[in-house]
Amino acid sequence: MTKKETIQFYQELSTNAWPPKSSILLSGWILRISEGITKRANSVLPLSYFGENLLVDIEQVEKLFQETDLPIIFQLSDYFEPKNLLEQLLELNYEIIDESLLMIAEIEKINEISLNKSFLYSHIIEESTSWFDAYSMLTKCSPERMIGNKAIIDRIKFPKGFFFAKHNDQIVGIALAVIERENIGSYDMIVHSDYRRQEIAQSLIKKIFDWGKELYVKGAYLQVQGDNSGAISLYKKVGYKECYRYRYLIKR
């Protein structure tokens, strides 16, 4: 695949794995509109464009997001259309924030991953209050954000696995995995602050890969913020590599 095709492919997977409440098509752009909880589910994805007046289309985007009381956000990967979109958004007082990496791996080429057997690992394929309660506890997020995230996860139409790491019956780590088109995406990998640097995250990754292999998955992907050097080092250690980057532009 070309770089454009590769980015489009993984953007499709990541959007399907974190689906918006509704979407609007505008001159090739996808406007994702949800509860306002996360930027990915509440932003414009400009991977193709056939409009004739860029400024008019940006104004239309701004109007639609303002009508829903949402911040106006574009998600620009290393490939976007039209080519002068970034320049135009910066001129219109948009600010670049939160550059992130999408990393990929081939399951058959994954490095050997050690498992910290001091913890008990499990996963379920049905949503449960215990996983969401653990998410709320580990992230200390607001009830509103928890409701919004649960609504997004409820909308996922593809096989999903909810992973746990436990110590003395206490949940100390969780992760979410979604499978589509022979690829497994890892999301919401969170470890309790008192239990970090004990190989829990990499153990959860191993369990996710094991589940993926059972379902004949060939590839894996995840997204990580560009300033999270510790997580990036871990993912490289187990066999992920950077595929492309993306960042958000938000109207100031």
What's the CATH architecture of the largest domain? 3-Layer(aba) Sandwich
Oligomer: single chain
Strand residue content: 25-35%
Q: Which percent range fits the helix content?
A: 25-40%
Beta strand count: 11
Unreliable residue runs: none
Number of helices: 7
- Main sheet summary: 8 strands, mixed
Shape: globular
* CATH homologous superfamily annotation of the largest domain: Gcn5-related N-acetyltransferase (GNAT)
What features would you describe in this structure?
This protein has an 8-stranded mixed beta sheet with strand order 4-11-5-10-9-8-7-6, sandwiched between helices. Strands 1-2-3 form a 3-stranded antiparallel beta sheet, with helices on one face. With 252 residues, it is of the alpha+beta class. It has helices at 3-16, 54-67, 85-91, 129-139, 143-154, 200-214, 229-238; strands at 22-26, 29-33, 44-45, 73-77, 94-106, 120-124, 160-167, 170-180, 183-191, 219-225, 241-251. It is globular and about 60 Å long. It folds into 2 domains: 3-101, no CATH class; 105-244, Aminopeptidase, CATH 3.40.630.30. The two termini are 36 Å apart. A hairpin with a 2-residue loop joins strand 1 (22-26) and strand 2. It contains 7 helices and 11 strands.
